[in-house]
Amino acid sequence: MRTQFAAIAYRIRKDKPEICLITSRGTGRWIVPKGWPMPGITPQDAAATEAWEEAGLEGRVHPQPLGLFSYDKEHEGEQLPVIAVVYAMRVKKAHSTWPESHQRRRKWFTPRKAASKISDPELRHIIRNFDPRHLR
Questions:
Q1: Distance of CA 16 to CAs 12, 39, 83, 98, Å?
Q2: pLDDT tens digits for 19-29?
Q3: Taking Cα atoms as reference points, which of 48, 40, 39, 63 lies closest to residue 5?
């Protein structure tokens, strides 16, 4: 079992939250930015780093995780079981270019619409029930 850190990047438009999804590099399905732990970097900062590298987003990560989801990641021809710890990140800036901008698409959705685009049921549940007013 491996661990990754993920970001639900959000912004407020017309007093309602919008969530940013990105496409995966392999299949083009909609996902959230996520990646492996980094030595000397907190889980929240790792989630923020992934949001920058994969989606071109900067913001403030809330310290309490929103939840977990599990999935199998293909790595060197094998299926690796992964648990992803999900953090909320309020986006302060969305850049027009970023490290993976030529490999991924980025799009903003309402939480309900974002959840409908996600294939993983645990992550879909976290996104569907996301409400930034409940963050501490």
A1: 5, 36, 29, 26
A2: 999 999 988 99
A3: 48
Long-range contacts of 129-135 (CB under 8 A, 24+ apart): 130/8, 130/10, 130/17, 130/19, 130/66, 130/88, 131/17, 132/10, 132/12, 132/17, 132/88, 132/90, 135/62, 135/64, 135/88
Please indicate, yes or no, whether the overall pTM of this predicted structure exceeds 0.85. yes
Residue type present at position 33: P
> In DSSP terms, which residues pair with 22 in a beta bridge?
31, 106
Query: Terminal CA-to-CA distance of the chain, rounded, Å?
Result: 30
- Give the C-alpha distances (Å, rounded to integers) separating 101 from 13, 55, 104: 23, 7, 6
The C-alpha atoms of residue 126 and residue 115 are separated, in whole angstroms, by 8
Cα(7)–Cα(123) distance, integer angstroms: 11
Here the tokens at position 125 are 């549940």
Distance of CA 58 to the CA centre of its chain: 12
In whole angstroms, give the CA distance from residue 89 to residue 59: 6
